[in-house]
Amino acid sequence: MNNTQNMSVLYIKTGMHTYSNKAFHDVTKSIYSYVTPIIFGIGLIGNIISLKVFNSPAIKRMPASVYLSCLALADSSVLVFYVLSEWIRRGLPWLLPDINFSILDVNGACQIREYLSHLSRLLASWIIVAFTAERCLTVCYPLMTLQTNPKRVLFVMFIVCALSMTYALVINAPHSFGEFIVCSSRDRYRYAHFIAESMFATLIFFLPFVLITFCNGMILHSLYHRNRSGIRTNDDSNIRLEFIFILFAISVFYISFHIPYFIVWCRLQIITNPASPARDNEFWYYWNGMLFICRPIYYLNYCLNFVLYCITGTTFRTELKKIVPFKRNRYSSVPTRARRSRMGASLKTSVFLSPQTTNV
């Protein structure tokens, strides 16, 4: 009788724990479903405006503007091929449960979607690394910077990334679960998929983290010694210094927005390796809920660069005022009214002071 009572208590506690994980999963998934479209819309608009600003005549010839223009394109690609596609697969069915959105997981679309989402995220990470390295060379080794061509560097980077991500076309395939289709690794490539995804996480976060931290440390060290030596800067140097501030802001937020998602992802990757036993629903409710919390934070990395540019870049804000129509009209209308008032005042003065007027 005691054993039966203990088993009943254990069953009740387990059932309550499962219900708690299910509720946690539902709340986090609901937040993810509503927040992600907002992040996508704001990020896409901001990246388009940033691309327009960095291609303005005043700054488009600078190497830093080339890197930041490509970063805006890469972030937009991530928003379309990764953020939007994941929301269609995970968030939209939660909002519209009566509609089947498995079209992105059918054969062909599954492999292409995985390839483009991996490629765009890899490019976005390594463009930041290339931009950091370019700023580091500009500050620490100015003569070496004159010999580098940013367009050539970015082209080679694109080719290398495009070739290295072709594994996503091979190891992924659609799997049917009742009425739903899910794109995941093929059964015979489970170990290869585990190794490839672990290397991918290293390439888009851990290795860039080390390189960005090292280059930023060298930049700070060089700027510190220049400041102590009292070297004066001209206007061109001030613009380059603004790009360094932009770089620091991008680097800090890049690392901050990546850390929560990749900690949870790595933890989940370790405990669900191919050699681990099958997990129950309670396990997946909890960890999927954690991922639904961390995903929107991770998405902010591809959304808020425009805000960082506006905060840290004086030249960026100046060029932005020239592009935004209502700003230009408002500022241009003030001098026009002033000129008209001055012309009217001078006309009245000339009339009253003219000889004809005095004779009358």
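That was protein one. Protein two is written in the same sequence-then-structure order:
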Amino acid sequence: MMRMISVTAAMALSIALLSFPVRAQVEGSAGEPSFGSASGPSNVSHPALHHRDDRYRLCASDVVALTFPLTPEFDQTVNIQPDGFVSLNGAGSVKLLGLTLAQSEEVIKAAYSKILRDPLLTIELKDFNKPYFIVGGQVSKPGKYDLRGATTATQAIEIAGGFNTSAKHSQVLLFRRVNDEWYEVKPLDMKHILTGKDVNEDPEIRPGDMLFVPQNFISKIDRFIPHSGVGAYFQTN
């Protein structure tokens, strides 16, 4: 008889954190997940991929410094608000969320062109959200962790304190964002990996990835899951 797995408070927090935008990063192939691929229309079987270039794109809470060499009275440091906008001294608000620094510079110049003639501007990224990953479920210390350098799935589990005795080692789930609405899910047999088998199947963690360690066997795992319904897919016999 099917029954839903009880979602712990830590897991609920983990799922909620997944709704935040993932940092743009350099990838071997633009927009391509490390496991599997997808094409075609945006639906359950084939969500459209989110194509990204190799330039950093601004996110909420990033801090940028604006310098006007010819008009230093407009020099300022601005924070990107949760809605993606920044308030510019004397030029109103502009949206920078998702833009590269070069694109942001053009947008800001256009805003100041209303009060300055051919404004000269340099823009510098002063602070940004650090890359992170999430580990939830049956581990000693579930939560959100900074991603510092190359980290594999087994290393991420160790960073989270290792498996609990109730953990289902052979069915750890790796959630990875495909685009703004979908995640791709890959089951990992950590039991084999940790005993020296299938070591090549130990994937490298990317910013925004989540590992979920279940307590019970999950009989049905969809390859693609909308971020709004992740919790509904944790079922067992």
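The domain at 3-40+130-236 is CATH 3.10.560.10 (Outer membrane lipoprotein wza fold like). Keep this in mind for the problem set.
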